[in-house]
């Protein structure tokens, strides 16, 4: 029956409540359990093709896709072509291929066309309270068109890359939509990344233009983005890549034009050029499978991975997931605290919400500035109804006095959302009880840069939640849990989370490296997309994400996810947040003296190559490391030294040179 199993995930069966779903999952997931009582009886293709609701491969996604504007339709053929099985050849995922559309047109012109031109598309709240702005759908379209016309004028064409290095100004979504309008492929680089990270991304995708701003204020700090861009562009020139234009937005509240360093001939002020262009701009119709954007994930090993998303499937998927996972209504005011530098800001600040004609709030500042109540003040100011954030923000605000929350009424709130890592049950409860006054469901959305949109998520009105569980798969998504050998495990279990069969929002390749795409995601468990995450499923069929399997530390032979340790710590009534941090033992080149400056420059090296979040918390000088005779570092001993459990060092006689242990202990507080 395995060939038929995928037909089972039919929409008709999905929204009918948790109990039913878990039964369905047990059947779908537990192929190996197939027995007579689990026999699946499928609708005929003839029946499916005319049914109101049918399986993803049949009518379901094409019915939804009809809500959008397509210049040319996808005809009568199958809407999806896919091979996820490396054993059967190249991995390929294509949705609506041959159809043409434009996502900017669907997000703006289509919304205006249905009569919402004067509705607010964007509310913008600056770093300083009281500094704000807004744009209607009409105004947003005009700004997008002016920039699109400028980009076309300087020679940006369909398929060209454009790097966007901007903070959360309105100009960031404007720039994304302008690229999409002309078929250019945007690659947004988070404005917290270093010059080196920016350069690496520019070198990989070779844009014609980079769009940045001179500086930004975040909390009390000013960050000089133009200086960072300059350094990155110089680094690129040194590597033989020169970017023709650096379009720079003058962010007056942070820095004046005059103070900005300038490279004549390359640098152009945004405000000098865009007003000169027409406020309408013809749309570039693109194939559903033409590239929409590249977004680099951090890439825990080696060079960052350029995750490539295409147009048609991504459009349909982000819009639909947004609508159902947040129970979106036209009267909603939606605020997602994520930066557009991450996937969440692509799918759920920009595309998903605008495709629904939503009013979206964009916040430039920091959640604890000027104080820890800023978020809730903003919720009241704009009457935010849907608030989507990350567990780390919840945990950091939960540490503060409750009055910061309760001084705001928050009565507009309807649905809360969480993304980015597992939300530990105690943070979930605080979010639910304190922020949401125990009346707003929480959509704990599990998904990835690679998946484009939500994969496992509550449908807030449809089924009961469990604090800390992302609950059930979205329409048509087929998660499976496999063991080390890649066998699907049924029922209550835990293992590696994989996805069987594609969904419209899936990424299509890693830019310029399809082989790495296959190796990283499809080879570990042939036949499946491997998410890299661990997951368990409880007796009711609820999914519990346990974090990345490579974030696993091996403690005395037990594999433990850092997320699990953090969650256990945070479950302590007196602990607000925990991070299992980085403690580095560092050996210097012979003869180099140890110094405080060196310690700082080592930390800086990590910050600039990876980012501030990865900076080691502690550097411990290590003239030598405890190694076995075969050269393996004995981390067990290092951990004991780091935690000062010196009487638990255990047997050190097997070390190649046991005297290094005494040396390290002597240097503990140096
Ligand atoms: P990289 O892949 O480059 O190392 P990353 O995985 O952190 O970076 P993202 O794609 O932004 O980059 O994050 C996706 C990951 O975040 C998921 O694989 C998962 O580990 C975690 N995650 C996201 N949402 C949730 C959630 N609701 N519950 C649990 N984990 C989540
Ligand atoms: Mg990842």
Kindly describe this structure.
- The strands form nine sheets. A seven-stranded mixed beta sheet has the order 5-4-17-16-18-19-20, sandwiched between helices. Strands 7-6-8-11-12 form a five-stranded parallel beta sheet, with helices on both faces. A four-stranded antiparallel beta sheet has the order 21-22-24-25.
- It is an alpha/beta fold and 670 residues long.
- It is globular, with a radius of gyration of 26 Å.
- Helix 4 packs parallel to helix 11 (343-355), helix 5 (137-153) packs across helix 6 (171-182) and helix 7 crosses helix 8 (225-238).
- Mean pLDDT is 88; it is low at 1-34.
- Helix content is 31%, strand content 19%.
- Magnesium ion (MG) is lined by residues 297, 448, 532.
Number of strands: 29
Q: Could you tell me the radius of gyration in angstroms?
A: 26 Å
| Biggest sheet statistics | 7 strands, mixed
- Tally of DSSP helical segments: 20
Query: What is the topology, as strand order, of the major beta sheet?
Result: 5-4-17-16-18-19-20
Bound ligand species: adenosine-5'-triphosphate, magnesium ion
Shape designation: globular
Low-confidence stretches: 1-34
| Global mean pLDDT | 88
Residues in β-strands, percent: 15-25%
Task: Provide the structure class.
Answer: alpha/beta
Q: Level of helix content?
A: 25-40%
Distance from first to last alpha carbon? 65 Å
């Amino acid at each position: 029956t395995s060939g038929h199993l995928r037909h089972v995930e039919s929409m008709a069966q999905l929204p009918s409540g948790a109990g039913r779903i878990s039964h369905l999952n047990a059947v779908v997931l537990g192929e190996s359990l197939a027995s007579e009582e689990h026999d699946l009886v499928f609708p005929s293709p003839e029946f499916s093709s005319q049914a109101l609701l049918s399986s993803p491969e049949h009518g379901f996604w094409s019915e939804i896709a009809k809500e959008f504007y397509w210049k040319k339709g996808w005809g009568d053929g199958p809407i999806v072509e896919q091979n996820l099985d490396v054993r059967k050849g190249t991995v390929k995922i294509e949705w609506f291929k041959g159809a043409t559309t434009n996502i900017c047109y669907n997000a703006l012109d289509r919304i205006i066309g249905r009569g919402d031109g004067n509705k607010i598309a964007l509310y913008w709240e600056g770093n300083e309270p009281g500094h704000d702005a807004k744009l209607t759908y009409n105004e947003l379209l005009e700004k997008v068109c002016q920039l699109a016309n400028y980009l076309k004028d300087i020679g940006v064409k369909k398929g060209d890359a454009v790097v966007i290095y901007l903070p959360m100004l309105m100009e960031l979504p404007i720039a994304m939509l302008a690229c999409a309008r002309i078929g250019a492929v945007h690659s947004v680089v988070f404005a917290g990344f270093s010059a080196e990270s920016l350069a690496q991304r520019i070198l990989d995708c070779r844009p014609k233009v980079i769009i940045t701003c001179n500086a930004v204020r975040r909390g009390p700090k000013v960050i000089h983005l133009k200086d960072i861009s300059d350094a990155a562009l110089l680094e690129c020139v040194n590597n033989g890549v020169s970017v023709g234009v650096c379009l720079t937005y003058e962010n007056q509240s942070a820095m004046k034009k005059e103070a900005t360093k300038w490279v004549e001939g390359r640098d152009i002020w945004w405000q000098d050029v865009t007003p000169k262009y027409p406020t309408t701009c013809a749309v570039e119709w693109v194939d559903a499978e033409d590239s929409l954007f590249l977004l680099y994930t951090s890439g825990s090993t080696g060079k960052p991975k350029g995750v490539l998303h295409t147009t048609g499937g991504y459009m349909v998927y982000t819009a639909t997931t947004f609508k159902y996972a947040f129970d979106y209504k036209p009267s909603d005011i939606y605020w997602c605290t994520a930066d557009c530098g991450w996937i969440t800001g692509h799918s759920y600040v920009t595309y998903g919400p605008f495709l629904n004609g939503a009013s979206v709030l964009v916040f430039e500042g920091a959640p604890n500035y000027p104080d820890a109540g800023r978020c809730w003040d903003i919720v009241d100011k704009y009457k935010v109804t849907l608030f989507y954030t990350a567990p780390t923000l919840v945990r950091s605000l939960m540490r503060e006095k409750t009055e910061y929350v309760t001084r705001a009424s928050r009565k507009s709130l309807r649905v809360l959302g969480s993304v980015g890592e597992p939300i530990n049950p105690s943070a979930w409860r605080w979010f639910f009880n304190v922020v949401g006054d125990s009346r707003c469901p929480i959509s704990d959305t599990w998904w990835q840069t690679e998946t484009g949109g939500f994969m496992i998520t509550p449908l807030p009105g449809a089924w009961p939640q469990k604090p800390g569980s992302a609950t059930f798969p979205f329409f048509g998504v087929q998660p499976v849990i496999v063991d080390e050998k890649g066998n699907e495990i049924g029922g209550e279990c835990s293992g590696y989370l994989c996805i069987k069969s594609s969904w419209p929002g899936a990424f299509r390749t890693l830019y310029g490296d399809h082989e790495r795409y296959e190796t990283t995601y499809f080879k570990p468990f042939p036949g499946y997309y491997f998410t890299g995450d661990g997951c368990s499923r409880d007796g009711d069929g609820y999914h519990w994400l346990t974090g990345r399997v490579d974030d696993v530390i091996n403690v005395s032979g037990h594999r433990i996810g850092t997320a699990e340790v953090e969650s256990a710590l945070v479950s302590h009534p007196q602990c607000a947040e925990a991070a299992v941090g980085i403690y580095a033992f560092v050996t210097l080149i012979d003869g180099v003296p140890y110094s405080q400056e060196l310690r700082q420059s080592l930390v800086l090296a990590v910050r600039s190559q990876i980012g501030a979040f990865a900076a080691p918390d502690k550097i411990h000088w290590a003239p030598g490391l405890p190694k076995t005779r075969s050269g393996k570092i004995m981390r067990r001993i290092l951990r004991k030294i780091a935690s000062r459990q010196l009487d638990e060092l255990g047997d050190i006689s097997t070390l190649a040179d046991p005297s290094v242990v005494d040396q390290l202990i002597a240097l503990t507080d140096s």
